[in-house]
Amino acid sequence: MQLIKGEKSEGGSRHGNPLNETPDDALTFVVFSTAGETFAINVAEVKEIIRVPAITWVPGSRDPVRGVINLRGSVVPVIDLAGALLLASGEKGPEARVLIVERKGDVIGFLVERVMEVAEISASAIEPSLRTLGDNEKKMVCSQTTHRKALIGILDMESVSDAAQALQGAS
Question: 27 pLDDT exceeds 90?
Fold first, then answer.
């Protein structure tokens, strides 16, 4: 189920392709930047957005895992979203945030450079992802749109989470 104009987000693990919506529905996205690129995810997939707390490194963890945080008594892994997308990851400044999402019952934090806004975007403005993307990138960037003159890749967080787990488990 996708969030449409006028609905209130409850957070959680809703999943779906925005292209399946009727053209007149407005979808709500969290728009953010990482690795110098602009991306969005459906607001319904975001439980919360937090400032970057102290991240504890976990021995044996590999990129893109940055470590774990304590989120109100729960241990939450933090994944550098740029690394999960196979993009160059740099230092995160004071505008960096952690997007807390729930995937398949697991709470995961995704580190991004900056959250820009929560935007309502017409479903008719959402297009399939670029054909020039490789197969792995097409799985993670399920569609795209233009908002405020910027090209925005819309992410499939299930595919991003799966890719991050695969990178972590690779030897």
Answer: yes
For 58-80, how does the pLDDT look when each residue is reduced to its tens digit (9 = 90+)?
A: 998 888 999 999 999 999 999 99
Q: Are 163 and 136 in contact (CB under 8 A)?
A: yes
Angle at 32 (CA atoms; ends 127, 116), nearest 5 degrees: 115
Rounded Cα distance, 78 and 81, in Å = 9
Using the predicted structure, report yes or no on whether residue 91 has a pLDDT greater than 90. Answer: no
C-beta of residue 167 within 8 angstroms of C-beta of residue 63: yes
Strand ranges, E, within the chain: 26-34, 37-42, 46-51, 65-71, 74-80, 97-103, 106-112, 114-122, 127-128, 141-147, 150-155
CB contact at 8 A, 92 and 113: yes
Q: Please count the other Cβ atoms lying within 10 Å of the Cβ belonging to residue 56.
A: 12
Residue 115 forms beta bridges with which residues? 32
pLDDT of residue 8: 40
Between 105 and 56, whose confidence is greater?
A: 56
Q: Which residues are paired to 154 by β-bridges?
A: 40, 143
Q: Which of 29, 31, 23 is nearest to 3 (CA)?
A: 29
